[in-house]
Amino acid sequence: MKRRRITEIFPFLLPLRRAQRRFCFYIKMFFDKNHYVKTKNEEPLPFSIYESKSTLLNEKTGFDMKYQENKVFNLHLAAETVNKILIRPEETFSFWQLVRYAEKYEKYKDGLCVINDNLVTVPGGGLCQLSNMLFWLFLHTPLTIIERHPHKIMTFPYPDPDEPEGIDATVSEGWLDLKVKNETNITFQILISFDDSYIYGRILTDMDTDYKYEITNRDKIFYKEHDKIYEQVSIYQQKIDKNTNEIIAESKLYTNLCEIGYSLPKDIEIINKGE
């Protein structure tokens, strides 16, 4: 039998537990000797090395669309703390070091979030869409990923059919962060913007480079084990010469594994574990 958490037995202790986790979370970063980014530059840096976009409203969640609209509100608040930030040499970007200040003037609205493998509504729900985009942008740079956490369960399908799979970075204040360190001599800048349909992300630099990065999915399978269905997919990074378009280097970054929490199309092949 799975052991129950103390906060599941006594739910009134949950706010105290969260406050304790947040305190320890930031105290640890205060003493970890990283130089966390804080500086913004109102003027964009001259070179754009990668850009992406993501659909704001997902109509496939099964929940009232007001929670998607609330998510968009939350994303605007959080993105303001990240937009135009510089990641200079030897500096470390932390999602929560910046986003924790998002509620300074306005409070988050209730959005969707996965807690204990269940999709529920919580204040600030939906911020993972921003951390997912940032992680995707970072993968197209030479920045070093020092902390990233995948979602354990995918609760609804990707809204965009061309959206890469297994490229996610869930965040939870006090527990899970997204961090990258700049171990190059280049300064990077994050730009985030919105229109009615999309959130846009760009990575800029202060100097041009003669290479670019591409991220690919390989070896994707769905399998069933103990009455649960999982998706397994490998993620590769290719470093490509801009002038010749030749692959300079290729590396497997990781294999992503998550449980599928929605009904797959009937034409998807699902293998049994061990076949």
TrEMBL record:
Signal peptide: none annotated. It comes from the Bacteria. NCBIfam families: vanW-gen (NF033128). This is Glycopeptide resistance accessory protein VanW. It comes from Acidilutibacter cellobiosedens. The lineage of its organism: Bacteria, Bacillati, Bacillota, Tissierellia, Tissierellales. The gene is vanW.
